Amino acid sequence: MVAYNFQKQFAEPIRSGLKTHTIRRDGKRRHARPGEHLQLYTGMRTRSCEKIIPDPICSAVHPIIILVGETSIHRITIERNGSVHSLEKLGQFAIDDGFESLEAFHRFWKDFHGVGAFQGRLISWGDFWIDNYDAPKD
Question: In this structure, which CATH number among 2.40.50, 2.30.130, 3.40.50, 3.30.9 belongs to the domain 2-133?
Fold first, then answer.
């Protein structure tokens, strides 16, 4: 079982079912694997530690790259089944990630990770569909 800590601002979107994924940098510790239970908390290692929801099951893990520019998010790409998808609906992705807008999403990524390419994993415990963020089909 893998535990993830979230800032308080993400607790309500997780509880309501709006946010069903997290984006994390690759590091020393391994990430969840599909089929494993996840523990989602706010305030880990503090007196205010709180489990956000009962342990969901990881449904998917995808490599993700977010290109953070000085004034905007330039591109988000997600790899799935060996193909790379460049997301078109960045605003919708930002909202589904628990932010009020693409601008708020950009501010967060720029403040916490800086300008440049962020590489990590998108860990999902819900129905994450890359097709939801593609351009509409003609």
Answer: 2.30.130
pTM for the full model?
A: 0.91
The low-confidence residues of the chain, meaning pLDDT below 70, are 135-138
Tens of pLDDT, residue by residue over 120-133, are 999 999 888 888 88
User: Sign of torsion, CA 110 27 19 9?
Assistant: negative
Domain ranges of the chain: 2-133
Give me the residue label for tokens 């494993």: 36
